[in-house]
Each structure stands twice: as structure tokens, then as C-alpha cells.
């Protein structure tokens, strides 16, 4: 059993108590969910337990004995491991080599490579990970890296697994497979700590649920002791500190939150402005695309879903300008998006991009928040009389950064490293950074990743407002439920082809009519067909 006793975490760089006086128990053979709004302290608390952060005060007890972890390696030796939101793997080695690091078969006399690969492959197959352990870590997708990180912990015989937002980029089928795995691990006596914003998910998975709010533990509930609807409202009220409201869209409208009024108003055209025709891609490390064609018009919110390894990630990279198709055309209005091509060409034609991969693509972890937020805007803030010298107008840039932080509802110094902010805060900042750019169309991949319910509704309202002004929005996500809430049309990409193209109903997402149920089933079938 793990006991956290009156744990605190203070960050002197921004004067914030991220965790305050938290006491909670984690038991073996149990799935314990940690939920809370963005910035509630969930990830910070788990990083303390996993040895990545030292507590400012308080005690950790493992099986009744006080423990202090000075590194993740210390925690792993004690049987506690964590899969973070964005796993960073050792580059240029195989999956099996990554998994056995620190517990190599045959070490210290020699490394039995054949035995190591066979044993890791057997472990992967046993739990249905679908990984070839000889694959290189450099070419793995986000979900494959997540599976690899989890496989490594299982290899090290971890007794307690911490999973931080593990379903954020998984399809419905992948999520169910993960849940089946976690239930099996629980039944074998492993303790699972599951961090999530998705309340309905944890209600179906967890044995107990703890809620954090503003760094404090506000309640722990045993799932089996409450009716599902009752527990849902108890959790929502505990998370928000106010009575849960049925009309969440109304709740978002009532929130004192700045709107994007500064964005340029676009011509409200419904004609096709983006045309993708007969695109074919065969790029090493990515799923192939085969004769893929679709179009989208101004004012449309087009949802694109599927399994990321089935072509969804490839299509994202193509539309963002990072992969050039082997054949086919992509046109925005009268302009050829592929000539000369590349991400700068996409932006020159009024495109903005929120990447599914936050670290290394959307933001650079080694930079400050200020540097990450001005990565595109700096081109527009050059002093006019010094333009030949490319001298930046730092005062204007500082005002621009402050405006984004205010709109995203994020406090703190922009000169701190990006690692000082929670995943939900960074996601909001990324969305507002991109939507502050002069845009005619936006590619948003997994835009709701890491956002709590209330912030999801706020962003959805902003996207709908932009669509009403004629801007084309392409939302790529493995979360079909979210696409139902925001999109007007949905495409399903599977095995490199478009398997389904349907308009979405204008009814409320909670309208489970037979027609909506059939459409939902058709989408899930197409994703896996």
C-alpha cells in the first residue's frame, strides 16, 4: 500500500503551491483514478510519487515504511513507475533494448540479445500491445511510444503503474483494449493510478476516484457505493466547486473568459476552399495513404477520425506540410498547397496548425514559454524602420504574449520554462497562440487533449464562432464523442483510405436517438473496418 501523508509542493519560481496538504491511499489490486480541472495538481502529485519531483513537505510511505525518492530510478526500484503524457524514449535503439535498460538479461557478464528480444516480444504479445520489439524507437507514433513505455514498466515488474492521460490520443477500440489490459493487471495484484479528465471513462474503469481542486484533495469515492449518475454529479461539483449544471454550453457562456474578437472576420463562403485530390503517400515510418480525396468549405467544422496508425497521423503531416505526397494535389482556393510546399507554405496561405504532438513539434521543452508563444508571431513584429536588419519589436511581442495568456486563463511568468505549466494550461496556450494568427483555415489535431470539461466547452464555443465567420476548421481526433459535440461533418480514415464521409446531426450530443446510435456505430465500424 502507498500512503501519501500531508504532501505539499511549492514552486518558488512562480510562487505557487501546486499541491497542498494532500493525504491519499493507493492499494494494490485496485484502479484508483485521479481527476480534477486543469492545474488542479494531479500530474504534480504523481510526479512526486514517481520520483520526478521532490515534495516540499509531507511523507510517502510504502507498505508502512517511509520512503523518499530522489529520482524516477529510485521509485522504479521500489516498484513504482509512471507513463507520462508525452513519453520520451531513448533514441536510435529498438523497443526491446529500451525495455530492458537497467535489467538486461545476462548482465553484468554479457547481454543475451536473443533472449532479451524474445522475452520482451512474449510480454508484448501476452498483453496484446501489437508491437514488433525490433522496431526502432525513433519511428514510433505517439500511441506506440506510450505502449512501449508501459511495456518497459511491466518488464521491470512494477507493482504500481501511474498513467497520465493515457487515452488522450487513443481510438475507442484502443481505449477499450487498454482498459481490458488494466483490469487484467489489477486482477494480478498491480495497483493502477489513472489520471484523466474524462469522467465517464473513469466511472467505467476505476474502483475508487479521488478529486483534486486547486492543489487540494476534496474527496475520494468508492465507485461501487453510488449510482453512476449520482457519482457523476458529485465529481463534477467537487471538481468545479459549484453545483454541476446540465447545460454545459450555457455554463461556458456564463464564464468570464475573453473571446477572440481580435481575429479578422472572414468572408462567409460555403463553397469548397480546400480540395484534396487522389493523394497517395508512402513515407517510411508512416502508414500509407491510397488515392485519398475530399473537399471542405469555409464555415465548415470538418472532423477527421480513425486509428492514428491507420493513416490519421500521416494525413495530419500531409495537411500541415511536413510530408509531400508521392502523387495527388492539395489546393486552397486557387493556390497549390504543394508548390513549393512545406509548413511555411501552409501558413502563407492562411493556415494555422495545432499539432497532436505537444513536445518537439508544437512546443520546444528547452525554450521558455515566451519563446514558444512567439515562434510564428515574431515575423510580424519587426520594427518597420529596421526591417532590413530584422530587429524585433519586443514591447509589441510582450503585449501579444500577455494577451494570449489572459485569453487562455494562465497566470505566471512567460519567461519560465514550459515545463513549469500543466498539460491543460499548455494546450490552451497552444490553441490561442494559433488562433491569434491571421487565419483562413485551421488544422487542429487532438485540440482537446488534456482539457477539462469546462475548458472543452469554452474552446468549442470559440471554434463555432470562427466557423460562423467563414473560417474552415479541420479537427482531427480519435475521440468520436468530442467530434459529435463540435463538428458538422465527419470523415473516417482507415487503412489509408476514407471509409466514411457523413454529415453530423445538429441535435445535442446527448440525443441518443436510434439514428444517432446507428451513425455512431457506423463510424466505429469504419474506423476498424
Concise summary:
This protein has 17 helices and 20 strands. By secondary structure, the chain is an alpha/beta fold. The strands form 4 sheets. A 6-stranded mixed beta sheet has the order 6-7-8-3-9-10, sandwiched between helices. Strands 16-17-18-13-19-20 form a 6-stranded mixed beta sheet, sandwiched between helices. Strands 2-1-4-5 form a 4-stranded antiparallel beta sheet, with helices on one face.
Please give a structural write-up.
The chain has helices at residues 42-49, 72-77, 95-100, 113-126, 142-155, 172-187, 199-205, 228-240, 248-254, 312-319, 343-348, 369-373, 394-408, 423-435, 453-468, 480-486, 514-528, and strands at residues 2-11, 16-26, 31-36, 57-62, 65-67, 80-83, 160-164, 191-195, 208-213, 216-222, 272-281, 289-297, 301-306, 327-332, 335-336, 351-354, 441-445, 472-476, 489-494, 497-503. It has 529 residues and is of the alpha/beta class. 33% of the residues lie in helices and 23% in strands. Among the domains are: 2-89 and 140-244, P-loop containing nucleotide triphosphate hydrolases (Rossmann fold); 272-350 and 438-528, P-loop containing nucleotide triphosphate hydrolases (Rossmann fold, 3-Layer(aba) Sandwich).
Amino acid at each position: 500500500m502507498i500512503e501519501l501523508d500531508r504532501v505539499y509542493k511549492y514552486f518558488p519560481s512562480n510562487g505557487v503551491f501546486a499541491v497542498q496538504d494532500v493525504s491519499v491511499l493507493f492499494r494494490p489490486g485496485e484502479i484508483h483514478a485521479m481527476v480534477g480541472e486543469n492545474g488542479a495538481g494531479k500530474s504534480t502529485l504523481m510526479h512526486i510519487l514517481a520520483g520526478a519531483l521532490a515534495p516540499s513537505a509531507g511523507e510517502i510511505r510504502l507498505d508502512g515504511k517511509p520512503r523518499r525518492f530522489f529520482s524516477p530510478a529510485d521509485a522504479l526500484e521500489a516498484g513504482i513507475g509512471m507513463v507520462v503524457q508525452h513519453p520520451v524514449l531513448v533514441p536510435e535503439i529498438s523497443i526491446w533494448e529500451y525495455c530492458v535498460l537497467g535489467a538486461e538479461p545476462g548482465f553484468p557478464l554479457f547481454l543475451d540479445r536473443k533472449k532479451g528480444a524474445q522475452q520482451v516480444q512474449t510480454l508484448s504479445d501476452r498483453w496484446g500491445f501489437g508491437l514488433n520489439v525490433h522496431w526502432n524507437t525513433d519511428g514510433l507514433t505517439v500511441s506506440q511510444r506510450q505502449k512501449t513505455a508501459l511495456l518497459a514498466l511491466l518488464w521491470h515488474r512494477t507493482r504500481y503503474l501511474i498513467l497520465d492521460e493515457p487515452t488522450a490520443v487513443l481510438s475507442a477500440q484502443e481505449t477499450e483494449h487498454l482498459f481490458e489490459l488494466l483490469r487484467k493487471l489489477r486482477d494480478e495484484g498491480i495497483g493502477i493510478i489513472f489520471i484523466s479528465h474524462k469522467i465517464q471513462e473513469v466511472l467505467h474503469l476505476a474502483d475508487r476516484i479521488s478529486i483534486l481542486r486547486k492543489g487540494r484533495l476534496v474527496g475520494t469515492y468508492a465507485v461501487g457505493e453510488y449510482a453512476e449518475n449520482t457519482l457523476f454529479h458529485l465529481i463534477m461539483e467537487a471538481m468545479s466547486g459549484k453545483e454541476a449544471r446540465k447545460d454545459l454550453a450555457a455554463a461556458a457562456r456564463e464564464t468570464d473568459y475573453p473571446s477572440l474578437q481580435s481575429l479578422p472576420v472572414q468572408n462567409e463562403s460555403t463553397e469548397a476552399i480546400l480540395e484534396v485530390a487522389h493523394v497517395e503517400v508512402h513515407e517510411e515510418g508512416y502508414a500509407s495513404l491510397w488515392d485519398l480525396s475530399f473537399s471542405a468549405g469555409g464555415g465548415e467544422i470538418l472532423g477527421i477520425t480513425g486509428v492514428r496508425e491507420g493513416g490519421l497521423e500521416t494525413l495530419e503531416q500531409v495537411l500541415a506540410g511536413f510530408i509531400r505526397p508521392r502523387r495527388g494535389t492539395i489546393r486552397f482556393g486557387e493556390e497549390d498547397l504543394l508548390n513549393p510546399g512545406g509548413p511555411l507554405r501552409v501558413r502563407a496561405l492562411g493556415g494555422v496548425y495545432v499539432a497532436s504532438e505537444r513536445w518537439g513539434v508544437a512546443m520546444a521543452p528547452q525554450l521558455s514559454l515566451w519563446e514558444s508563444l512567439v515562434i510564428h508571431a515574431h515575423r510580424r513584429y519587426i520594427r518597420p524602420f529596421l526591417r532590413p536588419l530584422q530587429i524585433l519589436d519586443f514591447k509589441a511581442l510582450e503585449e501579444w504574449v500577455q494577451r494570449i495568456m489572459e485569453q487562455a486563463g494562465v497566470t505566471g511568468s512567460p519567461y519560465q520554462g514550459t515545463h513549469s505549466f500543466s498539460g491543460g494550461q499548455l494546450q490552451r496556450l497552444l490553441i490561442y497562440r494559433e488562433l491569434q494568427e491571421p487565419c483562413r483555415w485551421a488544422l487542429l489535431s487532438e485540440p482537446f487533449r488534456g482539457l477539462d470539461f469546462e475548458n472543452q466547452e469554452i474552446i468549442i464555443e470559440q471554434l463555432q464562432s470562427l466557423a460562423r465567420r467563414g473560417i474552415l476548421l479541420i479537427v482531427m481526433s480519435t475521440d468520436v464523442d468530442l467530434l459529435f459535440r463540435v463538428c458538422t461533418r465527419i470523415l473516417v480514415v482507415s487503412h489509408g483510405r476514407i471509409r466514411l464521409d457523413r454529415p453530423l446531426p445538429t441535435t445535442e450530443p446527448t440525443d441518443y436517438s436510434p439514428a444517432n446510435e446507428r451513425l455512431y456505430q457506423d463510424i466505429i465500424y469504419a474506423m476498424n473496418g
